[in-house]
């Protein structure tokens, strides 16, 4: 069901993407970064730790990635050991600190690759398809992003089969950027599939590219009340059986 991913759903969905990638010469598979192929919670945890050092809040020095549940900073403060009253008192200054550092190469280099993502992106390339990472990160984060790619084994942009599309205008909203990026993706070749965690963005792709297999990655998102389209399947990550890559069975999708 859309928005209700289950591990058992992943092999047929991922296998179907690989089968389509093999079948469409020069096709493009689109991957979002944050909360899709990348886990930014290690970055979030370090920001809380560094805020704790700057503000003299000792419990935050032990902040961990799992303290972040979605994008709720105040909840993360509580999970890291502050009382609800302390969390409310620190929410505004911590949010300012977060905003200063979250969109920087210095911190995004700490991001982790989500389960199965490196193997699946590599398997996608072996089909002969192109890969386009399409992210709302501003271009100033490129160096840190590539550092995290290397650390997690994600294929690196080469200007030929692997492309990294980032915002040139950091002030542009993610929704507007993703709409603009569609044309840049289409210039690379026919779109085979697209993966995104944000319902608004995966819906955009499904409507823009009706022949592509657009897949919702059911992690966290902006929490806007937007439902994933009923025709869009959901997965929780990119773990797959070896048989997914070997057979490329479309499994009816």
Question: Explain this structure to me?
Answer:
The protein has helices at residues 10-23, 41-55, 73-79, 84-101, 105-108, 117-126, 142-152, 174-186, 199-208, 242-247, and strands at 28-31, 38-39, 112-113, 130-138, 162-167, 191-196, 213-217, 234-235. The chain is α/β, with parallel strands linked by helices and 253 residues long. The strands form two sheets. Strands 5-4-1-6-7-8 form a six-stranded parallel β-sheet, sandwiched between helices. A two-stranded antiparallel ribbon has the order 2-3. Helix 2 crosses helix 4, helix 3 packs across helix 4 and helix 8 packs parallel to helix 9 (199-208). The two termini are 13 Å apart. The model is unreliable at 246-252 (pLDDT under 50).
**Separate helix tally:** 10
Helix-strand pattern, N to C? HEEHHHHEHEHEHEHEEH
The description of the largest β-sheet is: 6 strands, parallel
The tally of strands reads 8
Oligomer state equals: single chain
Query: Total domains, how many?
Result: 2
Annotated CATH architecture of the largest domain = 3-Layer(aba) Sandwich
Computed over alpha carbons, the radius of gyration is 19 Å
* Helical residue percent band: 40-55%
Q: Report the end-to-end length measured between terminal Cα atoms.
A: 13 Å
CATH homologous superfamily assignment of the largest domain: HAD superfamily/HAD-like
Which ranges are low-confidence, i.e. pLDDT below 50, for 5 or more consecutive residues? 246-252
The structure class reads: alpha/beta
Beta-strand percentage range: 5-15%
Let me know the average pLDDT.
Answer: 92
Examine the coordinates and then state which fold CATH places here, giving the name of the CATH topology of the largest domain.
Rossmann fold
Strand order in space, largest sheet: 5-4-1-6-7-8
Give the class-level CATH name of the largest domain. Alpha Beta
Report the principal-axis shape: elongated
């Amino acid at each position: 069901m859309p928005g209700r991913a289950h591990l058992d759903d992943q092999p047929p969905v991922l296998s179907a993407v690989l089968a389509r990638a093999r079948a469409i010469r020069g096709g493009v598979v689109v991957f979002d970064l944050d909360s899709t192929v990348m886990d930014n919670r290690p970055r979030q945890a370090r920001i809380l730790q560094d805020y704790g050092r700057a503000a003299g809040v000792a419990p935050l020095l032990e902040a961990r990635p799992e303290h972040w549940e979605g994008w709720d900073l105040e909840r993360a403060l509580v999970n890291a050991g502050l009382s609800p009253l302390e969390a409310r008192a620190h929410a505004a200054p911590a949010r300012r600190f977060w905003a200063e550092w979250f969109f920087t190469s210095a911190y995004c280099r700490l991001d982790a690759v989500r389960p199965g993502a490196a193997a699946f992106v590599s398997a996608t390339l072996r089909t002969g398809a192109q890969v386009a990472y399409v992210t709302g990160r501003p271009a100033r984060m490129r160096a840190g992003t590539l550092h995290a790619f290397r650390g997690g084994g994600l294929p690196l942009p080469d200007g030929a089969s692997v492309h990294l599309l980032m915002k040139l205008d950091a002030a542009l909203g993610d929704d507007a950027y993703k709409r603009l990026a569609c044309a840049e993706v289409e210039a690379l070749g026919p779109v085979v599939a697209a993966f995104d965690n944000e319902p608004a963005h995966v819906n955009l792709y499904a409507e823009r590219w009706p022949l592509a297999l657009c897949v919702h990655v059911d992690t966290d998102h902006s929490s806007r009340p937007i439902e994933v389209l009923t025709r869009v399947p959901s997965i929780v990550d990119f773990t797959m059986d070896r048989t997914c890559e070997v057979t490329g069975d479309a499994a009816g999708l």
